[in-house]
Specification:
The radius of gyration is 11 Å and the shape is globular. The two termini are 12 Å apart. It has a single domain (3-73), classed as ACP-like (Non-ribosomal Peptide Synthetase Peptidyl Carrier Protein, Chain A, Orthogonal Bundle). By secondary structure, it is an all-alpha fold. The longest helix is centred in the middle third of the chain and has 15 residues, at 36-50. It is built from four helices and no strands. The protein has helices at residues 3-15, 36-50, 56-61, 65-73.
C-alpha cells in the first residue's frame, strides 16, 4: 500500500467518510464528521498506519489533509 493510500485509509476509517471526499482542502470542522473526537481517532489511525508517535504540537497543527501530509513528512514519510 502506498503512503497516500495509507493516509486516505486513515481518514476514511477515522472520519467514516467516502474516499472521494478526501482532498488537500479537506479541513478540520469543514465537514460534520471531522470534529474533536474524530480528530483524536484520526491521530490514532495515522500513528497506527505509519508506525509513528506524533508530537502534541503536530496533533494540534493538523488542520487539513494538506497539513497532515506536511507534518508526516517531518517523520520521513513521503507523498
Amino acid at each position: 500500500m502506498s503512503t497516500i493510500e495509507q493516509l486516505n485509509a486513515a481518514f476514511v476509517s477515522a472520519l467514516d467518510i467516502d474516499e472521494k471526499q478526501i482532498s488537500d482542502e479537506l479541513a478540520y470542522n469543514s465537514i460534520e464528521e471531522w470534529d474533536s473526537t474524530a480528530h483524536m481517532i484520526l491521530i490514532a489511525e495515522l500513528e497506527d498506519q505509519f508506525d509513528i508517535m506524533l508530537d502534541t504540537d503536530d496533533i494540534i497543527d493538523m488542520s487539513s489533509v494538506a497539513k497532515a501530509k506536511e507534518i508526516l513528512q517531518k517523520y520521513d514519510i513521503s507523498f
